[in-house]
Amino acid sequence: MHEEMSADLWNSAVRVLETNWTGHHMVPSRRLYPHQWSWDAAFIAIGLAYANPGRAWRDLRSLFEAQWADGRVPHIVFDPATAEEDYFPGPAFWDVPGRGSTGIVQPPMHAVAAWEVYRHAAAHGADSALQARIELEWLYPRLVAQQDYLTGSRNLGGAGLACIVHPWESGLDNSPGWDAALAGVPADPDLLSTYRRRDLANADAAHRPTDLDYSRYVGLVLNYRAEGYSDEGLLSRHTFAVECPAFNAILGTAELALAQIAGELGRAAEATTHRERAHRITAAIAERLWDPRTRTFHCRDLRTDRLSPLHCVSGLLPLMLPDLAADQVEAVLGQARSARFGLPEQTGLPAPSYDRTAPEFDTLRYWRGPVWINVNWLLRRGLLVHGFRDEAEDLRTAMVRLVHRNGHFEYFHPATGEGLGAPTFSWTAALSLDLLADRSVPAYARAA
């Protein structure tokens, strides 16, 4: 990779992160996403640690300062300096008493982020390493509480997997993987007369979720809000409940990161417990979300107890789990190499968010086809964990070239590479720094 290209990309990524820093936390983008998002904060911290580790820790701490007493980490923490009318759905809509946040969650990437930021700290000298130790000790019990919430209150299916109760919780908002489950959610177009979308003022409607989907998203929040965001008895009264392979792969990977953190903090018994939990989550994913006919992982709708038949990028991400059975690893790698996703050796581009060969494939609309850097970063991690270093390097190169040629966009056209969505997007910039730094991901030892 040319040094000049790498320097240009590094400098442009740092500028994006400087632009999107509020003085207290990072926003994904200034106009379209003017608050703090949960899993964004994790991805951002991983890359931001190379440029400004103090801000990386501050961003994570800012998010966890909004953690609920039950352990949930809200998917948005609202900036009180941003007016209600500048973003929908804002704090008044969510109506969370005493909190400037939403009532739903996002994938728990934060333990992975905390461990990665800690790993980077030594490169910044003794003072940075000491501060990192303090931050890790502060975050650890809060990260554990987050995992306890997701594996406890959100274990709606009873098999040890976390259940999402809104598509936004997946981070893959309008993925075709939710289509079947969303079909059972009442759609009330009149809701959008009462609650007006504001995303379309800053983004092309052809790139965003449809009004029909959005009315369902709003209705699901209203249903959850009516019960004070309680998870007790949720499966009997809520119309969307799904076990997502990507969300749960991240859940398991978080346990492995917590094992590393616990070991570093001298809590050997807790480290063992985290590794055992990761093993159980991996086994549950393999049992409940694997379809032997398609040879890949799919979302399970708990309302119907059926797997989605569609091939989404979420089905590739259990590759991050080191205890995944060898035949499943090979099958998932086969999916990633296939015409459905086409790793860079075929297309020259990172993997799309949805099956290229499917009739629902949409080159423009958000999670229904475009390329996203964060999920490809996770896929690369999985390739490294299982020793597929050539494929991982090809994917890294494809991501770096894509961003260098087109800019730090939110997502990208899966055929042309054109940038789509927000043009100065924080996690694209942050993960570019990580990809340029190219620190190898440690393969976790397999549990006994």
TrEMBL record:
All copies of domain Mannosylglycerate hydrolase MGH1-like glycoside hydrolase, residue ranges: 33-428
Domain of life: Bacteria
BP terms from Gene Ontology: oligosaccharide metabolic process; protein N-linked glycosylation
UniProt keywords, alphabetically: Glycosidase, Hydrolase
Pfam family, one: MGH1-like_GH
One annotated GO molecular function: Glc3Man9GlcNAc2 oligosaccharide glucosidase activity
Family label: Belongs to the glycosyl hydrolase 63 family.
Name assigned to this protein: Mannosylglycerate hydrolase MGH1-like glycoside hydrolase domain-containing protein
Organism of origin: Paractinoplanes rishiriensis
